[in-house]
Amino acid sequence: MGYVANTNADKRAMLESIGVNSIADLFTDVPEEHRFPELPLPPPLSELDVSREIEALSERNMRVSGMSFLGGGAWNHFIPRAVPYLASRSEFATAYTPYQPEASQGTLQALFEYQSMLCELLGMEVVNASHYDGATSVAEAALMAVNAARGKRKKVLVSGGLHPQYRSVMQTYLQAMQVKLMALSAGIASAEAFHSAGGSPDYPFGQAELKQLAAAADEETACVIVQNPDFFGSIRDLAGLADELHAKGVLLVVHTDPIYLGLFRPPGADGADIVTGEGQPLGIDLSFGGPYLGIFGCTKKLVRRMPGRLTGQTTDTEGTRGFVLTLNTREQHIRREKATSNICTNQGLMALRASIYLALMGQAGLREVASLCYHKSHYAAAEIDKLTGFAVPDDIRFFREFVVQVPIPAAEIVKGLSQQGIVPGLDLGRYFSGRRNELLVAVTEMNTKDDIDALVSALENVA
Question: Taking the C-alpha atoms of 69, 72, 76 and 82 in order, what is their torsion angle to the nearest 10 degrees?
């Protein structure tokens, strides 16, 4: 196919439409001294010099080790060496896109195994071949719930315990679709309070909020979205919530943590219609925030409206087992407004890593990882709670993360301890103006008792 550039007439028409005289006028906001071709760039370097410069810059990075207690959506878990080794084999790295299943049977089988294992883990009937990350999975769940209601319900109730960045992604997704994203504020469903509902330290994120969400759901509500464990690490009891919502024709969407499910009841057992999750803990590196893995599962009743790809197992005319993309066609991904979603690519490599991780760990291994996270985090919480000026709420059940009330701004503690090579957790004031003296601490199997004791000692000294 030949490439035809814009003609001068095309450019003039576009500039007139925008309301400027020249292409240069499009860059008036950029200071003149920083515009091409007069850029004050340093002199060129050789490849060797560039390599040295990059290595010097990389030495300034803080390495994630057992002395990191940072969570809030991405966690430092152990990754068996077999995971990156197998995932990087050329059979996977060079496989053709699953658009052509006959050319990529290995890729499709790996995705089928991923779907099968995640169905068991989530307690769901169907799991797709992944999304970009946890945030996009939640947004797609909201979109799917609205579509399932055939446009008759355009209200989505969101728990204040949902990750604040996920809430922002949802708003970006749905702002042009006339969907009301609503959170609870003082027990009242409010669209205006969507971004601020989590700002109050005493907001009822626990069981009280679940009851209020169920009560606020009405004939305009497509779904209620809750996170369990929530952004603050708290465990919710979802028993009975689905029944209350289903009686009103409302779907229940649960965002969960795959490691948590190694020890606790899956959302499917509580009647969830759609389950999403962040798959990063399943053998995927932190990698400065991505690429990650968006987990997405639902009931068979909703499978025709499921976004993304679904791999199925079948047999050919000779009876040989094979794998295909099923319940949608290649054209599904280019149907624009008629498509279930505009997500047309999956995180295939990340799903592969998750498949290898789950196969290596097995049921017993996953349970052991979850148990280590649970017990080590509770040991850390108990020790921190003994410190003068520090407090860990004793009426909240948690899994791997917990909130610590600290005597000085959490940002100061994070800065002080980071200089000592310890990342103590996440400053909640970063997201909530009313929680500047609260620190979100995450403990995984990577943190030894000595690491935890060092954190406790460092907290005492800094504060």
Answer: 170
Q: How far apart are CA 300 and CA 150, in angstroms?
A: 17
Fold assignment, 365-462: Aspartate Aminotransferase, domain 1 (3.90.1150)
Q: Which two tokens stand for residue 461?
A: 């000294």
Q: Are 374 and 303 in contact (CB under 8 A)?
A: no
This prediction has a pTM of 0.86
List CB contacts of 261: < 8 A, sequence separation 6 or more: 121, 122, 366, 370
User: Which CATH number applies to 82-357?
Assistant: 3.40.640.10
In angstroms, rounded to a whole number, what is the distance separating the alpha carbons of residues 427 and 392?
A: 15
Identify any residues that bridge with 188 across adjacent strands, giving them in sequence order.
185
User: Could you tell me which of 98, 122, 100 has the C-alpha nearest to residue 112?
Assistant: 98
Residue 254 in tokens = 């649960």
CA distance 431 to 399: 21
> Which pairs count as long-range contacts for 34-40, CB under 8 Å and 24+ apart, including other chains?
none
Retrieve residue 115's tokens.
Answer: 């779907």
Distance CA 413, CA 456 (A): 12
Q: How far apart are the first and last CA of the chain?
A: 66
Domain boundaries, the chain: 7-38, 82-357, 365-462
Beta-carbon count within 10 A of 87 CB: 21
HSE at residue 44, side-chain half, CA atoms within 13 A, is 2
Query: Average pLDDT per run of 10 along the chain, which is 463 residues long?
Result: 75 92 89 76 91 91 81 96 93 66 76 96 95 95 93 92 93 87 69 48 66 94 96 94 97 98 97 98 93 96 90 91 78 63 75 96 97 98 97 92 96 93 94 93 97 96 84
